[in-house]
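Retro notes, structure queue

What went well: the backlog is down to a handful. What didn't: a couple of records were mislabeled last round, so from now on we paste the full input next to the output in the thread. Example, using Holo-[acyl-carrier-protein] synthase from Thiospirochaeta perfilievii:
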Amino acid sequence: MAKVKRFDKFLDNEAFLNKYFHKSEIDYVKSKGVSAAQSLAGKFAAREAFFKALGTGFIGFSPRDISVDNNKSGKPYITPNQSVINELDRLANNWKIHLSISHEKEYAIAQVILEA
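Corresponding output:
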């Protein structure tokens, strides 16, 4: 879970955005207008949920090791980089990532289920 107000002040902080998010994510968030902070908080909450589901937290990984993107209908999905794929492959032969993000005025929350 992430407090939206906290992320509102980060929208113009390029150093923060580039430390935690990929360009595609930043462009998507900035296109959201009024709900940009909610979208940013949701993408951050998704990162936390993913690495908790992986069982590592951020230990050994960077928040930028995954990308939280959206398909044409707006459904979010996670794209892991090779180091995360290697860890997922170590845990299971076939894996699938399920992601749900929800947000409202004050909070954003994400749930990740890793299916093996």
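Agreed that this is the format going forward. Reviewer comment attached to the example: The helical segments are 4-8, 14-20, 23-30, 36-54, 82-91.
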